[in-house]
Amino acid sequence: MTRCDWGETENDLMRHYHDEEWGVATYDETETFELMTLEMMQAGLSWQTVLNKRAHFKVAFAQFDAAKVAQFDDADVARLMADAGIIRNRRKIDATIANAQLLVKWHEAGRSLNAYLWTFVDGKPQVNRYATMADLPGQTPLSQRVSKALKKEGFKFVGPTIVQSWLEALGILDDHLASCTVNHVKTK
Questions:
Q1: Which one of 18, 126, 135, 143 is CB 3.0 to 4.6 Å from 160, fit for a cystine?
Q2: What is the spatial distance between Cα 32 and Cα 38, in angstroms, rounded to a whole number?
Q3: How many angstroms separate the CA atoms of 107 and 66, rounded?
Q4: Distance in angstroms (rounded) separating the CA atoms of residues 183 and 179
Q5: Where does Zn(2+) bind (predicted)?
Q6: Where in the sequence numbering do the catalytic residues fall?
Q7: How many CB atoms lie within 10 A of CB 183?
Q8: pTM of the model
Q9: 5-174 domain in CATH 1.10.340.30?
């Protein structure tokens, strides 16, 4: 098996993420919120750091149940800021809570963030097969368009580079290298 360069690692979490999650289409709303949060938390850090803390993030953020996270108050923020098991960045924590509150409003209105994101690609994963990791863009016209739309809707910490990574994580974009032989045609 040949993987994308970053998936060729001895680290089990990274290898599993590459082989089983990244670029695999998901339609689950909770997973969409989880990956949104994790991609926000990763900004400025390595994805390995996020994966190492992922299990603890799930506990700290109520299994990424948006309705529960939306109710987090100042005591919860203080708890999160003191929690060495997560990335303790106040702006990112505040954005996660604000995004959960907005997501709850969407759900109450019968809207789905996951379904909304898929409309940008007409419900079909956009498959790219770049030759090298250097060819893989940090952002694209698609991520710029989605970022702008999400910001207009009121979501926080959703710049085009974060959105690019998030769309890849959700499988809306499948950006595995052309040389990668991992079977990506599956859904979560």
A1: 143
A2: 10
A3: 10
A4: 12
A5: 4, 18, 176, 180
A6: 17, 39, 47
A7: 9
A8: 0.95
A9: yes
Mean residue pLDDT across the chain: 95
Do the annotations mark residue 180 as ligand-binding? Answer: yes
User: Is 66 buried (19+), middle (13-18) or exposed (0-12) by CB count in 10 A?
Assistant: buried
Termini Cα distance of the chain: 21
Note every long-range contact of 46-54, with CB atoms under 8 Å and residues 24 or more positions apart, other chains counting. 47/6, 47/14, 47/17, 48/11, 48/13, 48/14, 49/87, 50/87, 51/11, 51/13, 51/14, 51/17, 52/13, 53/85, 53/86, 53/87, 54/13
pLDDT at position 67 is 98
Nearest to 167 by CA among 111, 131, 116, 132: 116
Residue at token pair 């710049």: 159
56 has binding-site annotation: no
| Type of residue found at 75 | A
For residue 173, what is the enclosing H or E element?
Answer: strand 173-174
Map tokens 């079977």 to a residue.
183
> Is residue 101 pLDDT above 80, yes or no?
yes
